[in-house]
Design a protein that fits this description.
231 residues; TIM Barrel
Length: 231
C-alpha cells in the first residue's frame, strides 16, 4: 500500500523564514515534502530551499515558470541542479518543451499547472468547461514530456484516463469536510481526491492554521490512508 506520508505536501505559505522553519520542525516525522511558493521564495531566496534539502526533506518549488523558451530552459536547468523534487511551469507548449529540455535526465519532475483551483471557465474567457480545459492541457503536457500536472481532485480521474496514466496528478485545494473552502472553486476532501486518482495532495491552511498542526496533519494522513486502502 502507498505510504500517505510520501504523498502529503505541506504548503509553506508563510511570510517569514522563522515561521517556515518552525513548521518544518513541528511536522518532522509526519511531513517530509514541503512546497515553497512565490511568497516564501521572494522572502528567503533559494538558500532556504537548500537548507531544507540538507535536512533530508523533499521540495516542491511552486514558481509557475512562464517566459520565452530560452529563459525557461536555463532557469529549469539551474533548479534541476539544486536537488529540488518538483517544479511547476505553465501548461503552455513552448514553456513545457523548454522546461523538459532544461531538466534533461536529472531527477527533477516538471509539473504543468493546468487551471488554478480558484478559477473556472469564466475566469479564463474560454467557452469550455474546466474539465475540457484541463484535459486539453494535460494531454499537451504529456506530449511535451512533463512528469505530472497540477489540477483539482475533481479532474484527477479524467486526467489519468485521457493521458493513459502517463502523468501523475498533484492536487491543491484540499479541504477536510466542514473546513472553509476559501477562494477555491474546485476543492476536494483528502479522501475524495485520493479516490479520484490524485497522487499527491498539497495542503496549507488546514494544517497551518490548526490549533495543533501535527494533529491536523495526522488526521489528513489517516484520511489518505483510508482512501489508499480501498485500491
Amino acid at each position: 500500500m502507498v505510504d500517505p506520508k510520501s504523498r502529503l505536501i505541506f504548503a509553506l505559505d508563510v511570510t517569514t523564514r522563522k515561521e517556515a522553519e518552525r513548521y518544518v520542525e513541528e511536522l518532522d516525522g509526519l511531513v517530509d515534502f514541503f512546497k515553497v511558493g512565490i511568497i516564501l521564495h521572494t522572502i528567503t531566496g533559494i538558500e532556504f530551499v537548500r537548507e531544507i534539502i540538507k535536512k533530508g526533506k523533499k521540495v516542491f518549488l511552486d514558481l509557475k515558470f512562464y517566459d520565452i523558451p530560452e529563459t525557461v530552459r536555463d532557469a529549469v536547468k539551474q533548479v534541476s541542479l539544486l536537488g529540488v523534487d518538483f517544479l511547476t511551469v505553465h501548461a503552455q507548449r513552448q514553456v513545457m518543451e523548454a522546461a523538459v529540455e532544461g531538466k534533461k535526465s536529472r531527477s527533477l519532475k516538471v509539473i504543468a499547472v493546468t487551471l488554478l483551483t480558484s478559477m473556472d471557465a469564466s475566469d479564463v474567457g474560454i467557452e469550455k468547461s474546466p474539465e475540457e480545459i484541463i484535459v486539453q492541457r494535460a494531454k499537451m503536457a504529456a506530449e511535451c514530456g512533463c512528469d505530472g500536472v497540477v489540477a483539482s481532485g475533481k479532474e484527477a480521474g479524467v486526467i489519468k484516463k485521457e493521458t493513459e496514466g502517463k502523468l501523475f496528478v498533484v492536487c491543491p485545494g484540499i479541504r477536510p469536510a466542514g473546513y472553509d473552502t476559501g477562494l477555491h472553486k474546485r476543492q476536494s476532501t483528502p479522501y475524495q481526491a485520493i479516490r479520484a486518482g490524485a497522487d499527491y495532495l498539497v495542503v496549507g491552511r488546514p494544517i497551518r492554521d490548526a490549533p495543533s498542526p501535527r494533529s491536523a496533519a495526522l488526521s489528513i494522513l489517516e484520511e489518505m490512508k483510508s482512501a489508499f486502502q480501498k485500491f
